[in-house]
Amino acid sequence: MAAAKWYEEVRADALPDVDDDFEASLAQTYSKKAIVEEIHDHILSNRGKFDEAIVDAMDRWVKIPGRATIAENCKRDPKKPHYALVPQGKTCAFCTMLAGRGFVYKSEKTAHKMHTHCDCVACPEWDANPNKIRGYNPDALSDEWDKAKKIVWEKNKAEARKNGKDASEVFEPGMKEILAQLRKTPGLCSDSCKPVNNAKSSKGSINIPDGARVNSKEKRAMQWIAQSGHNVTANPVKNIQNQKNPDFTIDKETWELKTISGNGKNTIDNALKHASKQSANVILDITDSNMPRDLINTIVQKRLSREDTKLNCVCIIENGKINYYKRAGHSPKPTP
């Protein structure tokens, strides 16, 4: 409702001499059935990170209908405006790219292309009175994109020449390559040059590459493991087969993290059961749990001793303190 009302107000300001009784309509919101189905899917497939997944989903459920309302009315409006995706302050490289295109969008389909927690606003413009938005300079953002593209292209050509190939045959760089370069522009994007990416601790290292998503508790676990002398990489959410990856690669072995907050008698056993579907190596962060520590250790050792266990190693972390358990007869590479 708010998006439709705002559209009418902006239109009236931009076209003061037009009186055509145009009324903005609301775009279709998520149906109750679709929301229930998505919640159900998260319960079945993403229980370990259910809270985070639902917060992300709610962000989409709220924001996408508002953006779609602007897009739908731009399409319906007889004055045929276009709209821009305008960031609210510094934004990520992906949204910087979209914002740099200016007032070119006009389809509702485009409005649905947004990442989680995107704060960009769809702002319409009418040719009769171009909209001026303080702090929004699409030409400058487009120039930054062109600079990043040129840097990547020249780098690829140089690499081709180094390998004895004809530089003229090098294809234009793809979007992901340019976005990665755009993030290297100091101060431009909110995800530019993050200190945590490839950051060296006093002993180990932390790496969060493109495609990986790390929440605060996962980052906390990474820091503790790195401080104990290990190289920790956050894996992309999904692999090339579109299957979920284990959370981390630590010293070349994959590990799945489970942050324990519940106190039920089956909490640890269920966490290990679900985690073992992702990796034979599991990290249990029990910092936020009130379960007796002796009970947790007993459950872990019992699970590892079972003949049908899929687990090789379990690492228990509490406030940076690490205890390590392994299945009998298993000798892994150095681990947390």
TrEMBL record:
Entry coiled-coil feature ranges: none
CDD domains hit by this protein: CDI_toxin_Bp1026b-like
Organism placement in taxonomy: Bacteria, Bacillati, Actinomycetota, Actinomycetes, Bifidobacteriales
Pfam families cross-referenced by the UniProt entry: CdiA_C, VG15
GO molecular function: tRNA-specific ribonuclease activity
Protein name: tRNA nuclease CdiA C-terminal domain-containing protein
tRNA nuclease CdiA C-terminal domain location: 244-322
InterPro entries linked: CDI_toxin_Bp1026b-like (IPR033806), CdiA_C (IPR040559), VG15 (IPR057369)
